[in-house]
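SEVERITY: medium
COMPONENT: batch folding queue
REPORTER: lab tech (J.R.)

DESCRIPTION
The queue accepted two submissions in a row. Attaching both inputs and their returned structure tokens so the on-call engineer can compare them side by side.

ATTACHMENT 1
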Amino acid sequence: MLGLVGRVAATSASGALRGLSPSASLPPAQLLLRATPTAVYPVRDYAAQTSPSPKAGAATGRIVAVIGAVVDVQFDEGLPPILNALEVQGRETRLVLEVAQHLGESTVRTIAMDGTEGLVRGQKVLDSGAPIKIPVGPETLGRIMNVIGEPIDERGPIKTKQFAPIHAEAPEFMEMSVEQEILVTGIKVVDLLAPYAKGGKIVALVYGQMNEPPGARARVALTGLTVAEYFRDQEGQDVLLFIDNIFRFTQAGSEVSALLGRIPSAVGYQPTLATDMGTMQERITTTKKGSITSVQAIYVPADDLTDPAPATTFAHLDATTVLSRAIAELGIYPAVDPLDSTSRIMDPNIVGSEHYDVARGVQKILQDYKSLQDIIAILGMDELSEEDKLTVSRARKIQRFLSQPFQVAEVFTGHMGKLVPLKETIKGFQQILAGEYDHLPEQAFYMVGPIEEAVAKADKLAEEHSS
């Protein structure tokens, strides 16, 4: 999994997620007076899935209490397992409740996936006999759906006969692939210093916005992941899964935990934080059939990287790309901190010795420059030794060469976006480290693609200066 972390209120993240253990227990904490049946779901059989509507003869309950997004439902017999989906009857719009706790012998406490306005005591509720199921398959491509799989793009129903539950076990350890391969993004700073593990090509949109009830926001990530898993497991494809923002998943889980009356843990987060995160992240992995590469935005509360929410997320990331205010203040975009960004696949056995040596050389010279900045600020450049002056000169060129014009920003910057192959990226930084361009001005390295463009820009600057 890849992760992009910003030092600011909102941030972006990238990552190919790896399951850290072969098995994961499902997250719900339970208030029990007796042993409680909890749903355990085997490997999905997509061909056997049918419509997610409650079946005839399903257990019937009635609402006994409504407390905001929490709804208590009483059953005379056939208590639904944890995580089962219930549907409220007698409403114009579909309202799905997910079982979160068992209260005694006959009552379940549920979380609503939509607003609970208009619910009354005694209203009929049907047990679907399974967790929330959503449509999957090629028919979902290009469509937008909500947490319960309903299309919200005003293009009619999603015409598929295949449905999958949003709760599932992570792939077995023996099914996972151990091969490591770089996902080349064409972004110099990412490909060189914090490369992403390879993933895929397909995107479908699943929405659960901040105006949604906490139950919907806590499950929308699982809904999107379920769509991605179909393409990995059934179509054998590489899937690219964007999650913006993974902190909202944790935040929604904290809200749900508070609504259920659980005692909070550190900093007020839910006691099941690590389990909730692990259960989801371990499903985002590469198997022998295909892969899922997840790009996740991570909000860091108060810029505290030790906060339980981002810290728990980092444990599952293969690569972390940190966005820095200080870099942005220099006008360098993408504003990636080259010293704080990391990648687990930055290993000479995976990326190759040449790539590894160049990346570490770039980081060393930037770290040396950082340690000299206080001396420069107090005494000036003249007090530095000739060797340190050369280090500063090359570091400033590298710093500017890490900038790159993006296609998405063309309308704002006027610079055409540049996609740089990995070999070109390595070659360019290798030549700068070797001193082949010590004679060029540092301005020539700003907002260019490959190193040849920097040389051409330097020639152009020289012509303008001479004229």
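ATTACHMENT 2
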Amino acid sequence: MAIDPEAGYHFNAGRDLAATLGYKPEWLEGIPEEPLAALVGTGNPFALGAIKPGENVIDMGCGGGIDSLIAAKRVGPTGKVIGGFTSESLALLGQEKTTAAST
């Protein structure tokens, strides 16, 4: 999904899934459509509690990087977000997409 979000899958994904999982629309503001379209998460980690400015966050299995991008907005310039991947190809893809989103 992270590699080809437009392939026509049989499950809910992207903005529709984000709404179903309880992501607030303002969290998604400024996030590029390409990584957002690849969202296939199974939950909303932000429902577990607030992330505060200056905190450090590790997002293991971060896929297209949506949660990492949302967390980066919350921790601000004094915090840090690290996304972890299970494969080198996904790591390179995630790095490319999050770098593009931060410019």
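NOTES FROM REPORTER
The radius of gyration is 13 Å.
No errors were logged for either attachment.
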